[in-house]
Design a protein that fits this description.
The protein is mainly alpha-helical. It has one domain. It has ten helices and no strands. It is elongated.
Length: 217
């Protein structure tokens, strides 16, 4: 039952990759995904790089800059609109339990936390909203976002440029497995985020048990 809408979403994304204004779709997807949209832009980026391999670097740059711009919107939501928008948005995205943990780590390891989230499938919107909520230094936030988002988007672009056709055939044939693997990466990324800064001297990291009460909410 799940595969039918998933296949439809995949075909819709492929159609956008072939659209005359695909670059604008890519910029829009990357912007909104960094602040509130649940669908990641990576498949669209990959398919566009597959269609026009010589433009892979250009597409990666557009994706990175658009995502960072969208991240600033997420930051603004956490900073100035938490009570009216942010809390409801986090709940709608199913990140209520993850938010206090993310906010705690951002207070302790701001640049590293953003870098990890930006370069892994951790929902970037979770960290952008939390960054604004904790009042993370804006310059640090922007620099970490550029590095983290650039790492993952340029990796996608290069992979599809070099191995594009085989990757697309594999996705077409095993879309369900690819989706399961991506979800597993997200879970792994979240676990990685919760281990930031935990070392041998402090294995019981306080942030892993952070709550809304500990954030003063």
């Amino acid at each position: 039952m799940l595969m039918k809408p998933l296949r439809g979403l995949y075909e819709w994304t492929m159609a956008k990759a072939a659209h005359p204004h695909a670059v604008w779709w890519l910029a829009l997807f990357c912007f909104v995904e960094a602040s509130f949209f649940p669908i990641p832009p990576h498949p669209l980026l990959g398919l566009m790089c597959l269609a026009e391999p010589k433009k892979a670097i250009r597409f990666g740059t557009i994706a990175t800059l658009s995502s960072v711009a969208g991240g600033l919107l997420g930051y603004a939501i956490g900073w100035g609109l938490w009570d009216s928008v942010g809390a409801q948005l986090i709940a709608l995205l199913g990140m209520t339990d993850s938010f206090p943990v993310a906010a705690c780590y951002l207070r302790e390891f701001d640049f590293e936390a953003i870098l990890i989230a930006g370069a892994t499938p951790v929902p970037f919107k979770l960290l952008t909203i939390a960054s604004g909520f904790v009042g993370m230094n804006l310059v640090t936030f922007i620099l970490a976002s550029i590095v983290g988002r650039g790492m993952i988007f340029f990796t996608v672009g290069v992979l599809f440029r070099v191995f594009g056709a085989p990757i697309k055939r594999f996705i077409d044939k095993y879309l369900g497995l690819v989706t399961i693997a991506f979800v597993a990466l997200i879970v792994g990324g979240v676990l990685l985020l919760t281990m930031v800064g935990s070392g041998e001297e402090d294995p019981a990291d306080a942030c892993s048990g952070a709550t809304y009460e500990s954030l003063g909410l």
